[in-house]
Amino acid sequence: xxxxxxxxxxxxxxxxxxxxxxxxxxxxxxxxxxxxxxxxxxxxxxxxxxxxxxxxxxxxxxxxxxxxxxxxxxxxxxxxxxxxxxxxxxxxxxxxxxxxxxxxxxxxxxxxxxxxxxxxxxxxxxxxxxxxxxxxxxxxxxxxxxxxxxxxxxxxxxxxxxxxxxxxxx
Length: 170
Description:
The chain has 170 residues and is α/β, with parallel strands linked by helices. Helix content is 35%, strand content 26%.
């Protein structure tokens, strides 16, 4: 499926990008993980905030080599390539190797993989970690049940196509 979307940018909406930037500036996370890089729009917002904070690092994930190349170009043009890296491959495998604790997680890839990616990363989320899940109207109920259940506090925000903002309690 990722090959079918090779030319689709699929960026976060500008207001979602501003939210990401603000969250990073406010929370000052050191380890940020993103699922679903596409052409790198969200990585630019996250990386710019990391750069402005002077602390932190962002790890993105993308399956498609062509999209990674375009994202790398965009990161270089934005001047954030030294605070961001993109892992190539299935996020359930590549992100499993990211060292924790993870302070902020952005889920913006294939919606049916939100829960499996969260399950891989959940042991690395520290209490107080923030999860931003984009495209609320398209999210599987199983994912929403998880982040609206025990161990999390969540709120839906009317930004872009909808955001589920979750706080990891335990």
